[in-house]
């Protein structure tokens, strides 16, 4: 259960990290 939760939080932080990078990239391309 605990390892499952840590795995989930890791996926969430990964998703946030990649979405931020993707947003930055598209913002740079838009300029």
Sequence of secondary-structure elements: H
Report how far the terminal alpha carbons are from each other: 46 Å
Query: By helix and strand content, what is the structural category?
Result: mainly alpha
Mean pLDDT level: 90
Largest sheet: none
Shape field: rod-shaped
Summarize the amount of helix as a percent range: over 70%
Total strand segments: 0
Strand content: under 5%
Low-confidence stretches: none
- Counted by DSSP, the helix tally is 1
C-alpha-based Rg, rounded: 14 Å
Essential attributes:
single chain, 31 residues, mainly alpha
Notes on the protein architecture:
The radius of gyration is 14 Å and the shape is rod-shaped. It has one helix spanning 2-30. The protein has 31 residues and is mainly α. 94% of the residues lie in helices and 0% in strands. It starts with a helix and ends with a helix. The mean pLDDT is 90.
Write the layout of secondary structure elements.
Elements: H1 2-30
In short:
This protein is mainly alpha-helical and 31 residues long.
């Amino acid at each position: 259960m605990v390892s499952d939760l840590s795995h989930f939080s890791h996926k969430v932080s990964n998703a946030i990290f990649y979405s931020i990078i993707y947003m930055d990239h598209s913002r740079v391309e838009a300029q």
